[in-house]
Design goal:
single chain, mainly beta, Immunoglobulin-like, 3 domains, nine-stranded antiparallel beta sheet, six-stranded antiparallel beta sheet, 5% helix, 45% strand, elongated
């Protein structure tokens, strides 16, 4: 007996869902990266299709590799990693073709050797159409980790998951049957320069020529000889003294200051000033006691240090609308941010941002779907140069929008902008969605 029209429609719907789930099981069909440098390794994989697919788990072999942007990092460096699935555990077993741009992969890379743990990686929602019975093209995922220990660190491909946004939101997790998988890449980390926590304070902020000022320091190398020196802008004056740090790395000594051009005092280990092994400058002013000739008037002025601040051109951004069933990039521009660094010291600044999930009518758009393309301009005459952050995902963990480096004399006024793009899945329920982007200046 032939199927009734209603039963036939129900069968076609179930078949369509099943083909989607099978596609995911094969590991997806995302854009293949160019020039992945890791060694290809094979490992047994166990994939569990969504229950709606109505098919049993699939055991197969995954071929993958892991590559890095730096094979010789130092402790403290951030390493970018790329996990590429070259051949997934299965291919599309149906005659139905799968549409483009429905699959989003996530996964983990296992660290071994000198440093252990897992690195979370994610890939874009981008794949070509997959013909029926065809093999799935490769896909890649990227992430970062911070090197914490010196030595050889191995990187092995780990578990991965394919999320599909086609009719239904479905997940297909694929796990390494015998973890860890073989190592695909090995990096050699070396000792990095430890963070400089040295600090100094002065007994007074000013004095007459020839007067001594008490200089106290902490977190210097225990037992180290420390030079105390006057600074006039970016040059060292002839006023110096030497003290020795105690067993706790602290000291207290006196520096006689004669140079009337002195603007600050520094303390450092070694033969000459080194920002990595020193502290300061701490502001200091020499009183000008030069006698005023008869019939003359001495004019004085003071340049006061200001603060680090930021302001925004607005507190809301309306991104462009997208069509239900098509989705895609919802774009707009960040309200211009103005950063004013009027501190007049050696420290730079960093402006970072993070975003919440976008919530709407009974649904949400993941924060990881928002990306930006930062731009930063320094106002003419600013001592510092502004560096925009890298284009890419913002997400809940955050990213750098702009920054300036430490220097002998920093400061200025800066304009920060960014293009915004929210990747909205095709069948996101119609309605208004909102997320909060928080900017932090440090």
């Amino acid at each position: 007996m032939g199927a009734t029209p209603r039963r036939a429609r129900r069968w076609r719907w179930a078949s369509l869902l099943g083909s989607t789930a099978l596609a995911v099981t094969a590991g997806g069909a995302l854009a293949c990266p160019a020039g992945a440098a890791g060694t290809n390794v094979d490992f047994a994989t166990h994939c569990i299709p969504p229950a709606v697919a109505g098919i049993p788990p699939i055991d197969g072999t995954t071929t993958a590799n892991v590559s890095v942007d730096n094979t010789s990092p130092k402790v403290g460096d951030t390493v970018t990693v790329t996990y590429t699935v070259v051949t997934a555990a299965a291919s599309n077993p149906t005659d139905l073709a799968l549409p483009a741009d429905i699959m989003t992969p996530t996964g983990k890379i296992a660290l071994g050797g000198a440093q252990t743990g897992a690195v979370t990686v994610a890939g874009p929602k981008k794949n070509p159409p997959v013909p029926g019975r065809a093999a799935f093209p490769s896909f890649s995922m990227t992430g970062t980790f911070t090197v914490t220990k010196p030595g050889q660190i191995t990187l092995s491909p780990g578990d991965y998951n394919i999320h599909t946004s086609y009719i239904l939101e479905l997940d297909t997790p694929c796990t390494v049957i015998t973890p860890p998988a073989p190592a695909s890449e090995t990096i050699t980390a070396t000792d990095g320069t430890p963070a400089n926590t040295r600090a100094i304070s002065l007994g007074s902020a000013s004095g007459d020529p020839g007067a001594g000022v008490t200089v106290s320091g902490t977190n210097f190398t225990p037992g180290a000889a420390v030079t105390l020196a006057g600074r006039a802008g970016d040059r060292q004056t002839a006023d110096t003294a030497t003290v020795t740090a105690n067993a706790q790395g602290s000291f207290s000594g006196s520096l006689v200051v004669n140079d009337k051009t002195t603007t600050g005092i520094v303390a450092y280990e070694g033969a000459s000033w080194n920002a990595d092994k020193g502290a300061g400058p701490a502001a200091y002013v020499v009183n000008d006691d030069t006698p005023v000739p008869d019939g003359s008037q001495k004019l004085t002025t003071t340049v006061k240090a200001g603060t680090l601040s930021m302001s925004q051109a607005g507190d809301s951004v309306a991104l462009s609308a997208v069509d239900f069933g098509q989705g895609g990039a919802s774009t707009g521009s960040l309200n211009t941010v103005t950063v004013k660094d009027f501190r007049g010291g050696p420290a730079g600044w960093s402006l970072t941002g993070k975003v919440t999930d976008f919530t709407g009518p009974g649904a949400k758009i993941d924060a990881g779907k928002l990306s930006w393309s930062p731009a930063c301009t320094a106002k003419a005459g600013s001592p510092s140069t502004c560096k925009p952050g890298s284009a890419g995902t913002v997400g809940t963990s955050g990213a750098t929008l702009a920054s300036t480096a430490n220097g002998t004399l920093t400061g200025g006024e800066f304009t920060v902008d960014a293009g915004l793009s929210l990747d909205i899945p095709a069948f996101t329920p119609p309605g208004s969605y909102a997320g909060v982007l928080t900017l932090t200046l440090t």
